[in-house]
Structure formats: C-alpha cells, structure tokens
What does this fold into?
Amino acid sequence: MEKGMYLEHEPAELVLRRQKLMRDLEGRGKSMGFLKLLDKLGLADAYETYNESVPIESFESLADSSLVIHQSTSTGSEAAYVDTFKKLLDSLSAKVDMTALPTEYQKTPYIYKDNQAQAVRGSKLKPDLTLYQKVSETQAVSTAQIVIEAKQQISETAASCKHLGQFADYALEIWKHQPLRTFVPLLLLLGCDLYLVVFTREGYYSAEMGQVLYRCEEGLTTGVYTVRLGLRKLWFLARYDNKDVILKISSTPTNRFPEGALYDVLATKDANDNLLVSGIPHVYMSGILANDVDGYRVEFLLMEDCGKTIVEFFADLRQSEVSAAEIANKAKKCVSSVIQTLAEARHVSVLQRHFSWECHD
It folds into this structure.
C-alpha cells in the first residue's frame, strides 16, 4: 500500500475494496479537455450559450485574500484546506454580482453539506462535501448530486490521483441508491486546480477546469485571470440544473430497426458539429432486453424527459392570464416545430409512423 493513500483508522475491508476498484479502473479512464467532456455529457451547447452570456468580469470581485492558499494551509490539515474551498463556494453566491446576468444564470439549484465527520445519510460515505438539490426533501445518498473532494497533492492530476478507488467507491454507492443515473460527477480540488471527474458504467473521464484558488508567493497572488476562468467554469456546473430522465421500455417488430439505433441516426451531426435534426430528446443509454418475444424486440432507452404534453401545456396556459392571441401564437410555433423535426428526420432517412405530442415553453 502506498504511503498516504489511506488513513490508518480506515477499516481493512474498506481499504481492500478501494484497492480493488483502483485496479479495476486501470486502462478504463480517459483524460480530455473540459469542453470535450461536456460534449460527452450533452452539455456543450449549454456551455457555449453560458459563455456568451456570462462575462469573465463577473468574477472580478472574488479577488480577495479569503481565497488565497497560503503556505500554512497547503501544508496543514486537509480540513483547513476544505474550509478554504467552502469559502469559495459561499463567495460565488455572495460576492459575484449575479443580478447583472441573465435570470437563468443568477442562482444555483444546489446546497452543499460537509460530510468530513458525518457520513452521508443512508451510507457510510464521508466525502469532503456533497451537493444536493435545494428542492430535495432529504439530504441523503439517494438524493446526492455531486461529490467534492479536496486533496493537498499538487504534483498529481485527476487521472494519476492515488485516490481514484475512493472516488469510484462514492460513485458505486450513489448508483446503488440511484440506479437510473447514467453518470456520477465528482469535483476534485488538487492544490489550487479543479478537475471534473465523471464516472460512467464503462469507466471514467477527467478534465482539468483550471485554477480556482490563488497561490500566495511572498505576499503576492498569482494567476488572477486564470482563476476567473476557472471560477466561470465552476459556476456553470454549480448552477446547471440536471434534467429529468425517463426510462422507456419499447417493443418493435424484429424486422424493423431498433429504436435506439434510430435515435443514433437522428443524433447525426454535420461538418460544423451541428445536429441535423432538431427537437430530438437526448438518449443517455439504450440496449436490447430481449431479441425476439413473439416477433417483437424489447428495448430500453434512458432518455431526456421532454417536458409537458401539449395537452398539459395548453391546459396550463388557459389557467394563466395569457391572452388568446398569445396562446394561438404558441400553438403555431408548436405545430411548426413538429413539422420541422419530421422534415429533418426524413432528410436523414427516418420516417416517423407515430409521435407523441410534447412541448417545451
């Protein structure tokens, strides 16, 4: 066992399990750029829009001494190091002038809980911090969204971190209580640099987000602009509201294309990386449960929830103070959107036999 990899008081069973996970992860991880990882998660377009709407100057007010990592902190206890990162999370909401930003970027849907001393409810996990949705009625492993770990090692990267077995253990426990999740994200602070680590069913991906704390060298802070860039990426993740997903069980005749394969075709992009078909829900995972049941193939699709049905959408509008003219205008937009999607799908050789009416505002 490598020195410093595990705490002496950790149970032998826990140590062995995490060592096994560490071995299992060998060759199953991939390091990539932040934008490329967001693209894998289906968030690249949202991030591009966010960058256009949130100027780097929005994070200028964070340049104060509370976010400076001094030599005493970087060589002291890990708890003090975690406290510095907690100050950062608090400062993001308190000090950054979010009122100047578009409404959808002003608030975070998350709250954090310190689990260094007390395990996450419903488990034995003790990550440094855990992010939960503010709307969650309970803060437990069944509602945990993002795990945060802060480590003092500054000579490592996320891909070479000796604690990957520990992080994978967190992901497996969350999957145990949230089986429909397709991935589990973890924010890892190494020194002053923040990494996004995403565990999937196949392995893990990691991306460097950049510096988010200031280093103190002889009383001077360094990397001010770099820190603002890192903080802008952090705020994107901290305010991004996870979309609901649905599990769809589909049965199609065995002489037809699997539905999952059709969605792969519909997700085709052009040379400029733009989707050829608009209005199609993102499919996070799909597979075949049975190849032939009385002439039908049984599939599952874990996919983005498209929102309200058109009936529900317009029923809600009728209950509001929206004028009849505005309702008619929205109806025309919905019909136009459906026709456009069907035409684009036909262009990539997919004909729709039937469709369900669903609508976003």
Summary: The radius of gyration is 23 Å.
